[in-house]
Amino acid sequence: MQLNQALTILKDEGYKYTEKREDILSFFNKEDGYRTASDLLSFLSKKYEGISYDTIYRNLHLFSELNILESTELDGEKHFRLACGHEEHHHHFICKSCGKTKAIKSCPMNLLNIDFNGYLIENHKFEIYGLCPNCN
Amino acid sequence: MQLNQALTILKDEGYKYTEKREDILSFFNKEDGYRTASDLLSFLSKKYEGISYDTIYRNLHLFSELNILESTELDGEKHFRLACGHEEHHHHFICKSCGKTKAIKSCPMNLLNIDFNGYLIENHKFEIYGLCPNCN
DNA sequence: ACATTTTATCGTAATGATTACGATTTGTAA
DNA sequence: TTACAAATCGTAATCATTACGATAAAATGT
């Protein structure tokens, strides 16, 4: 996802354009991998002394709702990354060292042949963890 | 996994047999699904007034290391269940309402055909969430 | 059975991530 | 430029989890 694309979504949905929001998006754009609220706080604190937790978390949640960010939970902490450009449903390999990802286009839900008669399937999670070539 | 089987593991590994440990195991045995530390605390508090967090978490971690329990993280909270023991590597459908599970025997790692050249694959997570027939 | 040793537990405080909220500031549109 | 809604600040509260010195209890050897 491009930065201006994300800012357009914000504007179209009636949310305000702020410098902090632009900086949050540019942070995720340059980082190119899963990052925590704490990572973002450190980054923004350099420019905005005394930035509030409220701002960090409110925007992370807002961006997630707007599908600008996608998130996953690793080691008891939520991690966020810019939503992938390609629109189709997909999964990720996630590097445990640098947080960068590799898309997995095929989904196990299509490959499995299980009888879920009587069950209501809501969602699923498939992630592969390890080290990317750079960190390996 | 059977209770006496778990208690045998404890004994063989040199850990002490305590009534609390037996109660913890019988709790997971009767519950038959993923439960939190808080669930366990509520249960044990009925019998042991003033039971310590230390006891709860120390035993949950110990049992996980000994493969008596298996765990997963759901909604920011660790959940535990009796290990499926003897069975092969597998995954789970997990009911978001009652925590009960249904085993998925096939593993997506065998079904996918992805080039991970240069990557180090350490582990993976595949879970399906929804409602079981009882809760649906 | 008793003493010794080792492990388990208690009581409670600390930590880390996240959420909450009244007061204040700021973007936006009229 | 004014008015209003949204965003942010400052800070405290909450929730899950970890930590640790003091005490209790189980296992072991005599």
TrEMBL record, chains A, B:
Belongs to the Fur family. Keywords: Cytoplasm, DNA-binding, Iron, Metal-binding, Repressor, Transcription, Transcription regulation, Zinc. Binds 1 Mn(2+) or Fe(2+) ion per subunit. Binds 1 zinc ion per subunit. Zn(2+) binds at residues 95, 98, 132, 135. GO terms for biological process: negative regulation of DNA-templated transcription; regulation of secondary metabolite biosynthetic process. One of its GO terms (cellular component) is cytoplasm. It comes from the Bacteria. This is Zinc uptake regulator, Fur family. Fe cation binds at residues 89, 124. GO terms for molecular function: DNA-binding transcription factor activity; transcription cis-regulatory region binding; zinc ion binding. It is found in: Cytoplasm. Its cofactor is Mn(2+); Fe(2+); Zn(2+). InterPro entries: FUR (IPR002481), Fur_C (IPR043135), WH-like_DNA-bd_sf (IPR036388), WH_DNA-bd_sf (IPR036390).
